[in-house]
């Protein structure tokens, strides 16, 4: 029995070469071209995907074999039943992209950020570390999304889309993670 990884809900075999990055598995072997290879050094965030629906990682820095038995969600796995994810729709409504190259990573990172908020994980700019919930200010969003770069400078639209959508998603806490 070969080792598998779940990608957007489908089990796929892991590559036989343990040196294959998760990004290369997605793009070159599975032909899921939404996740982008920007810098290939973990500096731009264009390759961000979700692990187990909540943890955001840079797929260019991850070996596919590290995620054996885990569930990976790329941008292709966000839409459901032919409808865009609410965050994808908000990016359109708030003009949160221009060229669109960074958008897949921005979307996955923002959803990972929402999961962090639900767990009560603070950021560098979180003002009240003892609060039950983190206030999602524009500064808080910008800090949490600082690992995702946009060459076009569509940051205002990105922040507005996240503020509108993630605020609603983060409003329902599911228990706090120890700090």
UniProtKB/TrEMBL annotation:
What name appears for this protein in its UniProt entry?
2Fe-2S iron-sulfur cluster binding domain-containing protein
Q: Has UniProt tagged this entry with the keyword Flavoprotein?
A: no
Q: Where is the 2Fe-2S ferredoxin-type domain?
A: 1-78
Give the keywords, sorted.
Answer: 2Fe-2S, Iron, Iron-sulfur, Metal-binding, Oxidoreductase
PANTHER family according to UniProt = OXIDOREDUCTASE WITH IRON-SULFUR SUBUNIT (PTHR45331:SF2), OXIDOREDUCTASE, IRON-SULPHUR BINDING SUBUNIT-RELATED-RELATED (PTHR45331)
Q: Which CDD domains match?
A: fer2
**GO molecular function term, any single one:** oxidoreductase activity, acting on the aldehyde or oxo group of donors
This protein's source sits in the domain of life called Bacteria
